[in-house]
Amino acid sequence: MKDGAQGMETAVDRTIFREAMSRLGAAVCVVTSNGPAGRCGTTVTAVSSVTDTPATLLVCLNRTARAKAVIRENGLLCVNVLTHDHVGLAGHFAGQTGVLSESRLDGIDHGVLATGAPVLEGALVSFDCRVQNVMESGTHSIFLVQVAKPYLFVFELLGQPHPQIPAAELDGPVDVADRQSDMADLCNLRFHAFLRSLLWRCRSFIGTVRRRDIPAEG
After folding, report:
1. From CA 119, how far away is CA 127, in angstroms rounded?
2. Is 13 exposed, middle or buried (0-12, 13-18, 19+ CB in 10 A)?
3. Stretch 84-96: mean pLDDT
4. Do residues 164 and 144 touch, judged by C-beta distance below 8 A?
5. Among 42, 90, 98, 186, which residue carries the largest CB count within 10 Å?
6. pTM here?
7. pLDDT tens figures, 162-185
8. Element containing residue 21 per DSSP (H, E)
């Protein structure tokens, strides 16, 4: 195999590439949407920040997945970042329970954000987004989405969760519990700051759920 200016003579084996990528640490997310094209939810691992001005994320979805067409037509989505306690939820939204994407939110605790996108209760961080651009590459569609508002799920020191709080409301002191004065430190968090914190919190999840354990949605 040659590289450099002359290019590559042979393509990388798909199985080897997927095995190699399974060793790249990444958060596991559930992407949800609701609108004229209907409601859907699907598990994804290819989510990344692009820029903070304006706040933009990159989300990759399989081109054959029904959720891809629904999200594109709705023009909005919510990226729900899961925790290590959500292994079953990740499998459910990946289709492992046999439920179609349009019905996966049934029976799952969730709310509705400003765009109309469903938000999962208990997600570590949720990003309410509008689709700005879609590009096609190989088997996947690349969505560039602008964040309307990020929602941070706040935990007490004893590990008990509080409801999601819009990050915009973290400009002043956050009194989520009398014994949790340390949460005031969250007031100065910005987009990239809590993304870095997010990556740290998800390390324990990475060892449990790997890319190769989450099948692509058909």
Report:
1. 9
2. exposed
3. 92
4. no
5. 42
6. 0.66
7. 445 455 444 332 333 333 333 333
8. helix 14-21
Using the predicted structure, report yes or no on whether residue 211 has a pLDDT greater than 60.
Answer: no
What six digits make up the tokens of 159?
A: 């590990």
Find, among 105, 108, 150, the residue nearest to 127 by Cα. Answer: 150
Read off φ and ψ for residue 144, nearest 5 degrees: -100, 120
Query: β-pairing, 118-120 with 47-52?
Result: unpaired
- Torsion angles phi and psi, residue 112, rounded to 5: -130, 130
Contacts (Cβ under 8 Å, ≥6 apart) of 70 = 33, 35, 37, 38, 39, 40, 101, 102
> Is 15 in a helix, a strand, or coil?
helix
Q: At which residue do the structure tokens 């002043």 appear?
A: 172
- Which has more confidence, 138 or 132? 132
Percent of the chain with pLDDT over 70: 62
Beta strands in 104-169 (DSSP E): 110-112, 118-120, 125-137, 140-155, 161-166
Take residue 112 and report the two structure tokens written for it. Answer: 């509705």
Residue pointed to by tokens 């004893």: 158
- Does the structure show a pLDDT above 80 at 187? no
Residues facing residue 164 across a β-bridge: 153
Tokens of 27: 């958060």
